[in-house]
Design the sequence.
């Protein structure tokens, strides 16, 4: 079991929860989230994401990651304009944050 912030992910059962609520993810969404959570606090490059999740060494579409990431963020309740779970590090990749970095309103 991987637990980061309020998200729990069971790689063996391929199940994910936010608090007590189970979140249903597609296979690719799960694989994307699993890779990010397994490396929580570290930047995961887009190249690594494409290789590990899509098993390709080239970008079939530069939007593939963005589209799947959008679905994952929506399902997890992570606002892309003020993210607290997955942040985009421009020019480097994505990072699953180990703590909530949102600024209080």
Sequence:
């Amino acid at each position: 079991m991987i637990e980061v912030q309020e998200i729990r992910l069971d790689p063996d059962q391929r199940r994910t929860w936010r608090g007590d609520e189970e979140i249903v993810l597609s296979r690719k969404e799960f694989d994307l989230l699993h890779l990010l959570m397994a490396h929580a606090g570290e930047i995961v490059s887009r190249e690594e994401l494409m290789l590990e999740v899509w098993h390709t060494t080239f970008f079939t579409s530069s939007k593939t990651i963005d589209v799947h990431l959008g679905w994952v963020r929506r399902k997890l309740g992570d606002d892309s304009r003020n993210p607290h779970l997955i942040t985009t590090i421009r020019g480097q990749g994505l990072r699953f944050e180990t703590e909530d970095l949102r600024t209080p309103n």
